[in-house]
């Protein structure tokens, strides 16, 4: 009804997020910000979608833009904390994987998936690591 209203896109983005449709939510949130470059709530939705999809760096970039508009906004700081936590988890996954420690990698993947609830790649990676662990357990059982 009103294709130039940023709030409408933002509201639909929120609905998509509640339905777990993070790509659709991200598209609408980006449109809200495109329509109104001062719409902090739109930036927050973009960041939340990026975090849910596992892209913490994109979330931090958008949050920096939002922070320029409202430097004292607690919601922006909270989302920055979430994005940074996701980055730390992903870094720990990389370290553990480099050592072949899939059990620890899965632990950190689970922590990452608490933030990145819609990230298909992390879910696939976790499944692969679970297979690695099962194969290792099977191999050890054969040795006994």
TrEMBL record:
SMART domains, per database record: TPR
Entry keywords, A to Z: Repeat, TPR repeat
Pfam family, one: TPR_2
InterPro entries xref list: TPR-like_helical_dom_sf, TPR_2, TPR_rpt
Keyword Amino-acid biosynthesis: no
Coiled coil: none
Repeat region (TPR), residues: 6-39, 40-73
Protein name (record): DnaJ subfamily C member 7
Organism expressing this protein natively: Halocaridina rubra (Hawaiian red shrimp)
Source lineage: Eukaryota, Metazoa, Ecdysozoa, Arthropoda, Crustacea
Gene that this sequence comes from: DNAJC7_1
């Amino acid at each position: 009804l009103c294709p130039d209203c940023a709030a409408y896109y933002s509201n639909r983005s929120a609905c998509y997020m509640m339905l777990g449709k993070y790509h659709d939510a991200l598209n609408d949130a980006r449109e809200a910000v495109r329509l109104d470059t001062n719409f902090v709530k739109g930036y927050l939705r973009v960041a939340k979608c990026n975090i849910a999809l596992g892209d913490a760096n994109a979330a931090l970039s958008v949050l920096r833009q939002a922070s320029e508009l409202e430097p004292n906004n607690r919601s922006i700081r909270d989302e920055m904390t979430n994005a940074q936590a996701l980055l730390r988890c992903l870094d720990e996954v990389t370290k553990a994987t480099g050592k072949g420690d899939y059990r620890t990698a899965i632990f950190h993947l689970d922590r990452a998936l608490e933030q990145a609830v819609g990230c298909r790649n992390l879910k696939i990676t976790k499944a692969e690591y679970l297979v690695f662990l099962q194969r290792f357990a099977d191999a050890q059982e054969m040795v006994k």
